[in-house]
Design goal:
The chain is an all-alpha fold. Helices cover 81% and strands 0% of the residues. α1 packs across α7, α7 crosses α9 and α8 packs antiparallel against α9. The chain has nine helices and no strands. 36% of the residues are buried. The chain has one domain.
Length: 181
């Protein structure tokens, strides 16, 4: 299962951006440079994104430690621990998700559906808004405000902000999940 997750990380990093780019290229006539939003890269937006992801990662982890979440079947933290990931594996998967998913959703889909619908779609496709598992959907309600923040931050701060926030959020959670006893 660990190998499959690492392969899926590569797929997310390398293949998820393609449909996002193709949407923008064919419907909005956007070049690779415009798609990657390179002109708006700055150290400030990088640090704002990293900071938001770290802070929200701690908040989410705090909520995930509530007794309510102990009763949820198929807990993510237990699945991660069973795979025996190293911190480096967690950082790699966080980078893959941060880059690949943000290129697909923020740079690709969001200009068509808007930040609100794209955020809900993003969280739902991760399985966190599940009408058949309402207890698990509580996690979706915790992560949804974070996704709203990065979605609305895309127009103001750019793609790098979103990638940095997503990466650092995932990296914080992976680190906690990997290091827990």
């Amino acid at each position: 299962m660990k190998k499959q997750m690492l392969v899926f990380g590569w797929v997310t990093l390398l293949l998820f951006p393609i449909p996002g780019f193709l949407l923008q290229f064919f419907f909005n006539d956007i070049t690779w440079i415009e798609f990657f939003d390179i002109e708006r890269y700055s150290i400030i937006t990088l640090f704002f994104g990293l900071e938001l992801g770290v802070v929200y990662g701690f908040i989410a982890y705090f909520f995930m430690k509530a007794p309510f979440f102990e009763r949820i079947p198929n807990r993510i933290d237990l699945s991660i621990r069973k795979m025996n990931f190293s911190i480096l594996d967690g950082v790699f998967l966080s980078l893959c998700a941060g880059v690949g998913e943000e290129l697909l959703f923020r740079a690709g889909i969001q200009s068509f559906l808007g930040p609100f619908i794209t955020s809900i779609l993003f969280v739902a496709l991760h399985g966190y808004l599940n009408p058949f598992n309402l207890k698990f959907s509580v996690y979706g309600l915790i992560v949804l405000p974070f996704i709203f923040l990065i979605s609305y931050g895309f127009d103001t701060f750019g793609l790098l902000f979103c990638v940095a926030a997503h990466f650092s959020y995932d990296a914080i959670l992976f680190t906690f999940m990997i290091k827990e006893d």
